[in-house]
# Entry
Amino acid sequence: MLKLIQNEHMKWFHKRSTKVTFITIGILTLCMALLMKKVANSAGTEDNILNFLSFSSGMLILVQFFALAVGGSMVAKEFEAGTIKLLLIRPARRSTILASKYLTLILISLYYLLSYLLFSFVWGALFFGFTSLEGDAQLLKNITLTYDSAYMETFMMMTFAFMLSSLFRNSALASSLAIVVSIGAKAVTGLVSEFGLWWGKFLLFANTNFVQYMDGMKTMFDGMTIPFSIFVLVAHFVFFMGVAWAAFLKRDVAN
Amino acid sequence: MTETVLQVDHVSKVIGKKTILHDVSLSVERGEIFGLLGPNGSGKTTLIRTVVGLIKETEGTITVNGFPLKEQFTSAMKSIGAIIENPEFYDYLTGYQNLKHFANMHEGITSERLDEVIALVKLENSIHAKVKTYSLGMRQRLGVAQAILHKPALLLLDEPTNGLDPAGMREFRTYLQTLCREEGISILIASHLLKEVEALCDRVGIIQDGELKAIQDLSPNRQDQGMYVEFEVSDAQKAADLLSQEFEVTMRSHSIDVAIVKEQIPAVNKKLVDSNILVYRITPVYETLEDSFMSVTEGEHHA
# Structure
């Protein structure tokens, strides 16, 4: 299993898109830093690194998109390149191979998330410094929570992308559909919440954001609790995994 | 005693209402090259893919080196190496990285073994170049390398010379025969090229419409099956009359074809000479693979 995960890392690492992703994350966070610097200068306010981390955490959706691109291609690329035929004729069960791919995907999403945080930290330190940090414990807590819920969303959606990848065996379709659903479903959940429809609380995106359970916050729908959200997330996860596994294990590789 | 490396037992594959494979049984013995000959769409590829577990059989069992494929997949796959159609690799990785990738999926493949295999397929000079720069022949050789890394007992090849030029095909054939001799492995090869199969295989199964129609022995020490002997004689009519009670005789203008085996030639010759028929030439005629292929598949050209 460890060697399979190592294999998946090798394939991911040597792809050009991987390098491009890290560079893009670096450049985009740099742009955010420059933008905030400009705004701060013209407003005459003094910002520190935490203000920037808080600002940049608002764009964590980028990390999700990159994770969806990887998740959507993880299985499908093997079919598109024909390498699946050489991969599945080894002394390794299909379920082990799929598990190694999924675990690698989780690790990759964490690398992306960490690199986003790291770049934000470096640019923040360079452009804003560590001045007047005292009394910002609440801000730090908020940043952590934003990262947490952003990753929760990323985790669920990349599992969805992984399922599509296994189901359709087409990486372009899987990745783009996952991104469209990610954007669309979020908007739909917001609309359903506006109209106060009761069944909205079962939607995935109503439950990924745990900030709503903080003191003084209102939940997206009435009657939502933390255990309920966890239940909805687990139910979605089990469904995504079940479909991915069935599609990968049961179907023939005929071309 | 021969040892069976692959046993295919009453295997059928049905997709929807279409029968792709119908009750196919065959076995491959140690050190043997077995050919699967059939037109495109006859079920060769499906059979090969079923043996490596890419396609699941609807009925029947497949046993590899004593391990049932379905129940003990990983044990069975340890003995199998395969090239399924044109070997396709991770283009953006080097040849070496590709090999390393597949070596990681087997147990105990040392870097010495990797070097040994690379030398065997003569890729030493380009193994650290990206696969996307490889020619088809080089890919084919890398395909052989990934298939024999783990010293499998059975090598499965599906249309292995597709897209190779005649020189490449010949070179590839030599490789396979060397492998068979030096590594002692058995080979099951599917092809629609009659000449290729004839040049390479010890036994050939002819497959059509998903059914194994016949198995023919092509090895030098084969039984003298499907053979007749042509006698060029002074009087064909007289010779035919003389032999027709005892043997199956076909008469031609200056010769007769007698359905006998090699051991009977001297006796038949003596009989002719004793009856004052002059014998100019005796030629044993083997049924060629082409003959049996045509006779097995003829009358089925309904298209």
